[in-house]
Amino acid sequence: MEKFVIDGGTPLRGEIHVSGAKNSAVAILPATLLLDVPVIIENVPDISDVAICLKILRGLGAQVERMAGEPDTYRISCEHVKEHYVPYAEAKKMRASYYFLGALLGRCGRAAAAMPGGCSIGARPIDQHLKAFEALGAVHTMQGTDVVEVSADALYGNTICMNVVSVGATMNAILAAVKAQGVTVIENAAREPHIVDLANFLNFMGASIKGAGTDVIKITGTPVLLGNAGEGSVVDYRYSVVPDQIEAGTFMVAAAATRGDVVIRGVIPKHLEAITAKLRESGVQVVESQDEDVIRVFVEEDDVLHGTNIKTSPYPGFPTDMQPQMATLLTIAEGQSNIRESVWEDRFRYVHELKKMGARIEITQDGAVVQGGASLHGACVNACDLRAGAAMIIAGLAAQGRTEIVDIQFIERGYDNIVGKLRGIGAKMEKIRSLP
Ligand code: EPZ
Hints:
The protein is an alpha+beta fold. The protein has 13 helices and 23 strands. A hairpin with a 5-residue loop joins strand 11 and strand 12. The N and C termini lie close together (about 5 Å).
């Protein structure tokens, strides 16, 4: 069994660089199935969800090679892909495997994949994904108890009005519609930066997607995606994945919780506005650099951190994927804070773990209430899911004494080299393998 061991109480100081966005990469990699030419994807985070995506692509028959000397860069060629069945074991390992349904449906009119896995933060249905596929002319059936098969003789543009704002369903609707015949309009679309990143990538490769980042996205079907150089030209298309707003936010909160001073590089400050606003409300100092891709987070000696209220909502609201991390900071800030989680029905499993460390936080019928002012102490805690695990790291860094975090496989799904990055700014943290 592997675990993280943290000796807390040291302010984080220094510079840290953010990797490419997990929730972009896990959509852009399947999207390469729609292309008719090879492509090079840069700034791909080295995380287990990406490794699963690459393994699925290879399993479908794609050629995937890591570029020599560029560890975060892959050349992917899907020209010889014939398979439409996503390998079962891999599909079950993560939520984003469902993007292969939309990509394969858009590529060849057929796809089959196990119902996705992913963090247990709620029921995580896919009804809106299937609604989008049906609107475009596809039919879906269940094979056995948990394999979804979708197929269509042809896909035709249509209007898709999402019942809920869904990142995954918006992404999958784009993937299925980009080569369909005619125009598709997605209404009540999600607006996250990773939606825009997927649209930018596909447009770079010749698609016609307008409105990504707003709640109405218009897609004009393009039967062949050859990139902008046109047929017959030999050119390596290179696309870079957008920086990870949640990784950046996690480091921002860690800097604040340890009363440190950290410069975070490779970010897009606009993507962090809701996080920055809440940190400033709590008394944390946040400075956006003129260089644009840099943000500095610090707490000065006489700064007093105080509670604030959090309500998660789809972008550009406060991200649900930052809720556990921010709650951890609020347990040590002075005063009461109220936390409302509007996206996921079961995203407070980290509360039990924080209480082991002395946090005064209670789950209520509306969310959670934090009394604040705690002096956290080290403990042995579980990473209940990806972002709960990030919250445990923040708590361990802020606590006095030693914290051990088990089930770290959840954390390594979404954070690239988190131990190395945090050690680089002074964290006393290591990953050790212990006997079961
Ligand atoms: C994506 O999950 C992210 N995962 C999640 O990040 C993130 O929490 C979530 O978006 C919201 O931002 C990836 O991108 C791989 P949704 P997704 O569809 O697409 C309901 C992390 O920590 N819904 O936007 O699964 C759903 O139950 C992970 O990086 C339906 O009802 O989320 C939820 O209440 C955790 N029917 C809401 O919509 C559907 O068909 C938003 O879910 C789909 C969703």
